[in-house]
Amino acid sequence: MGSALSLSKKILESIGGRITLFQATLPNIGPSKSGSVLKNREDVNNRTVSSNNTQVLTPLLNPVTDFYKNLGLECSETQIGVDIFILSSSFADIASISPISKITGGSIFYYGNNGYNIQCSPGRVLARFESDFEYYLSRSIGFEAVLRIRKTKGFGIQSFFGNFFVRSVDLLALPNCNPDSGYAVQLSIDEELKDFSHVCFQAAVLYTSTDGERRIKVHTVSFPVVSTIHEVINNADQEAVVGLVLIKFFKQDNKID
């Protein structure tokens, strides 16, 4: 699989585009020293005991190789996005493979059948894959995109969440983007806002359409400055808050309790 991805990158690097990868087994062909070949690391004895005396497979949350991360960086530089469809009921080592998709603004679709959930029965999985792939081929896509975040003076950017490559403090590189992609930014209040009645935030996306047109989309929002935390809680977007909490949770390495 590593060799196929490297070759696909070489073919597209002069024009950019998208690579769609289907994974059914662990990559087992290629130069062993390159790091592209992966082995089954799923060992019931290789567990970490958490503070509440439960066992979790935390070692599997970390990649075993940087091959796919480094290849993802090369793809990002040449404006190539990588989407992955994982069609495997066994260990797929998503932690090692997923960086190539994350860095390039791609998506990961998982269709594992664990045998314990009726929702994961082979028939249901196949139907979901067919529906998802049909939509995947027909949905809108933007190429060679960048996302810039602007905010009122007094705020700082702490971190970004999503699939992208951070090009500068407030600029994200997105070789591919689509209507289903979601991004979050965590801000910090660096100065007092007592002189402001409202604060503004803006997200601007510059991208190339499938027709080759260079376009820009700008989203601007304004929020009132309040004095109590209750006013913030009562007007918060609950879905966005829960989504951000989950993303931050899964981003932590070796801290699952």
From TrEMBL:
<dbReference type="GO" id="GO:0008270">
    <property type="term" value="F:zinc ion binding"/>
</dbReference>
<dbReference type="Pfam" id="PF08033">
    <property type="entry name" value="Sec23_BS"/>
</dbReference>
<dbReference type="GO" id="GO:0006886">
    <property type="term" value="P:intracellular protein transport"/>
</dbReference>
<dbReference type="InterPro" id="IPR050550">
    <property type="entry name" value="SEC23_SEC24_subfamily"/>
</dbReference>
<dbReference type="InterPro" id="IPR036465">
    <property type="entry name" value="vWFA_dom_sf"/>
</dbReference>
<dbReference type="GO" id="GO:0000149">
    <property type="term" value="F:SNARE binding"/>
</dbReference>
<dbReference type="GO" id="GO:0030127">
    <property type="term" value="C:COPII vesicle coat"/>
</dbReference>
<dbReference type="GO" id="GO:0070971">
    <property type="term" value="C:endoplasmic reticulum exit site"/>
</dbReference>
<dbReference type="InterPro" id="IPR006896">
    <property type="entry name" value="Sec23/24_trunk_dom"/>
</dbReference>
<protein>
    <submittedName>
        <fullName>Uncharacterized protein</fullName>
    </submittedName>
</protein>
<feature type="domain" description="Sec23/Sec24 beta-sandwich">
    <location>
        <begin position="142"/>
        <end position="226"/>
    </location>
</feature>
<dbReference type="InterPro" id="IPR012990">
    <property type="entry name" value="Beta-sandwich_Sec23_24"/>
</dbReference>
<dbReference type="GO" id="GO:0090110">
    <property type="term" value="P:COPII-coated vesicle cargo loading"/>
</dbReference>
<dbReference type="Pfam" id="PF04811">
    <property type="entry name" value="Sec23_trunk"/>
</dbReference>
<feature type="domain" description="Sec23/Sec24 trunk">
    <location>
        <begin position="1"/>
        <end position="113"/>
    </location>
</feature>
